[in-house]
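Q: I'm writing up a methods section and want to include an example of the input and output format. Could you take the sequence below and give the corresponding predicted structure tokens, formatted cleanly so I can copy it straight into the document?
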Amino acid sequence: MRFNVKEEIIAITPQWKGERFPDGRPRVEDKYLKALENMTLEEVWKPIFVKGYENQFEGELKTLHTGKKLIGRAVTSVFAPTRPDLHETFFAAGMAEGRKGNYNQWVIDTLIEGDVVVADMYDKIYKGTFIGGNLATAIKARTKTGGAVIWGGVRDVEQMEKIDTQVYYRGIDPTPIREFVMLGFNTPVRIGKAVCLPGDVVFGAGGGVLFIPSHLVQEVVEGAAKSHIKDIFGFEMLTANRFTTAQIDRNTWTEEMLDMLTAFIREDERGQSFRDLDWSCEYELARTGDPNDTQTAL
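A: Here is the clean output for your methods example:
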């Protein structure tokens, strides 16, 4: 039995073709994490959903800091109720690898800048408090901008609220963590209805958490940017009564609308950061799509 195995992490993320961390996790570039800071949940969700990734969002979570986004690269772990023989075997395996403390501390001791803990504590809250004041402090110190998503409990919330680190969790309990066993470290995990792999980009905003597959992040950022500028332009057109809501909400825009959009991007200062976007696919859809298609955009 081994934990956090590089070869296994690479094996479950084969579509990632870029740089990797020493532990094997995909290393999504910082520039994409930065770009996500200015995007909304719906903008980021759409490019994933249309590709069939329909189990990437979970909204049944509480947040430590209202209104604060959480963006970073996932470090995953999955746990189960304790069983004496299993605990003895798995804990001994961790000790043999040089790990110190309890299972949750093993995870936090590996964190680096930009990481987000994603822990499936099987919705355990009583004696399932994965982090408290001390470990939240350690997460902040190690990750700088990261945080945690815990499908389980937390404690020491009054202390944690003073730490500028976002944490999503299921519930609060004063009990310390007890009677649990780690089943996997940097393996696939389930957070409620969502699935997360090590190295996925965690996007916590708008009342929930979205797990973006690492190999789709670049495409997601570009797609979200298009949705963002289309919204800015669309609101402008609706305010000026240039187009109807039915026209703006259509999945496929006409060539006339795209011409006006691209002119807006070129000429309006709000379009400056969107001027490198390629709209050729949208123009192709405008030319070849069904003009009577009234399906609304996602």
